[in-house]
Every structure is written in C-alpha cells, then in structure tokens.
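Input sequence (134 aa), recorded before submission:
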Amino acid sequence: MIGRLNHVAIVVPDLAAASSTYQMILGANISAPQNLPDHGVTVVFVNLPNTKIELLHPLGPDSPVAKFLEKNPSGGMHHICYEVEDIIVARDKLVQSGARVLGTGEPRIGAHGKPVLFLHPKDFCGTLIEIEQV
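Predicted structure, token format:
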C-alpha cells in the first residue's frame, strides 16, 4: 500500500538557524519558509536527491509542534511521511486493519498541496506516520 518515503519531519526551535545549518554546513538545497496555518506550522523543505527533510516550527503557541518543543526543547524527529496512490482507499484499509487515523479522519491539504492524513504513533512502533496522496 505505501509507496516511497516522501519526507522525514524534524521539529526545530529556530527555523532560520536550522535552515542555515542544512544549507551552509551540509550544502543542501532548501526551500523558502512556508506558513501552513491549517496545520499550525511553518515549514522549510531540505531537498535531497531521493527524498526531503521537512523542518517544522510552530506557527503560534497553539501549534501541535509547540507542545513537542516543550517536551523536546532542542527539537527532534516528529514524523515520517509515506506516499500512497489513493488516500481514501489507504485510509479505509488502514482503519479496517485496526489503525487509528488522527483528527476527523478526513484528509486535509498538506504542504505539497496534496491530501494528507496522520496515523496514531501507538499503532506504528511509536512513530507518527503521515500518508500523502501522490
């Protein structure tokens, strides 16, 4: 059901510093910051030949990643995103298999302008999973 790895998301306490580290020290190609008010985050993508790293920073105090930073002040890995061909078919199969979809269960538009859903980390070895329709 899952396709290729789309990205690994890392929450960072300072988006500009993290972006600079990836660009200046690692020589990576990075995107401009993008605010995603529906998700409560600002994102920067580190573009790699085979995938992306998504740097996440809270877009206000009510952001879900603000709570993550409270527990992990230095930041850290937040989620892994896998591609799926049809998000509704994937969701239904996952739910039928006992996986829990977070939120309303209805896809929302993610940072790439495509439908996404998040799956409960307790169902996937302690890892928050995002699926994105391609």
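Checked by second reader. The two ends are 12 Å apart (CA to CA).
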